[in-house]
Design a protein that fits this description.
Elements lengths: L14 H7 L3 E2 L5 E4 L5 E4 L10 E6 L11 H16 L5 E4 L7 E6 L15 E5 L11 E4 L4 E2 L8 E2 H12 L30 H11 L48 E5 L2 E6 L2 E5 L11 E2 H4 L12 E4 L6 E5 L2 E6 L2 E2 L5 E2 L10 H7 L1
Parallel strand pairs: 1-7, 4-5, 4-6, 6-8, 9-10
Antiparallel strand pairs: 2-3, 7-8, 11-12, 12-13, 13-14, 15-16, 16-17, 17-18, 17-19
Helix pairs in contact: 2-3
Membrane topology: Lipid-anchor; GPI-anchor
Protein name: Peptidase metallopeptidase domain-containing protein
Family: Belongs to the peptidase M10A family.
Length: 362
Amino acid sequence: MQKYGGLEETGVLDEDTLVLMKTPRCSLPDVTESESLSGRRRRTLPSQTKWSKRHLSWRVRTFPKESHLLGRDTVRALMYYALKVWSDIAPLNFHEVAGGEADIQVDFTKADHNDGYPFDGPGGTVAHAFYPGDRFTAGDTHFDDDEAWTFRSPEAHGMDLFAVAVHEFGHAIGLAHTSAIESIMRPYYQGPVGDPLKYNLPYEDKVRVWQLYGVRDSVSHTDRPDTSRSADPPVLLDLPENKSTVPLDRDAPDRCSTHFDAVAQIRGEAFFFKGKYFWRLTREKHLVSLRPAQIQRFWRGLPANLDSLDAVYERPGDHKIVFFRGAKYWMFKDNNVEEGYPRPISDFGLPTEGGRRLRLAA
């Protein structure tokens, strides 16, 4: 245990080891029990297996039930990018299927769920995945639905779903646990690992997956690959900050007694803008938070003195988001402003005066 937890191997149940025992972890064993020719049982590393095919399907079969922050689209996007971490460097291709059987079935479940690895409530074991092979569960990945799954939240606010998914999908393609401190395949939860759009696997993990599958053609041993292989990857928007910890200004509006400056549908969700704030309604028609979030905390690049918006919309062709205020407009890709903005609304043939009246008339 000390070895796989990155502690000095003293064999003594010291304070650091007691702390490690309470650290959330993957529920797959670090070593397995096997029987030697002499009839004695010994502990060995799991035998490495791999997929014989290179095109693998995946599906989120069941979703978190208790999370008010992670909608279904966010969960699916996080699974997409966690798998992409591995396919970016190895000759594996993952594609999502809408129903039926999939090579990698993803489930959020609780307690004893009939696979031999029961979950134990919050903390403790948080997820597991099955190695490739002939078993009908090969590749299947299970997350404990009793955990408070989060995304881009402070470490103390729950269990980062992307970090755990990268680890579990490592198992799903054949990697066992390792004691290397820098590896994502350490069995103990390490907290958030960063932006899913920019995360780069530690070199230890790259070498291990290369040993199984070889190197993807577009990858050097040091560079990230060209990410243009996926024609239409899912959009992964930032989530508003946990508003229970962010005090609101006195001018924060009451959603029940105000009119809105603009309403927009973005990524299938409804956004209601008022002043420098907005509310967000998920596809399941749940408010992400009863309290409004600040527009500038979500879309970075709008002016610091922004006090309201005139109009917002998502372009259907490339899914970029356009904000209008006065005689200017801004173009965003996801949460980041495009270079060269703001620009004048005269680009659209609109006069630079009276832009708000024209919008309302339209």
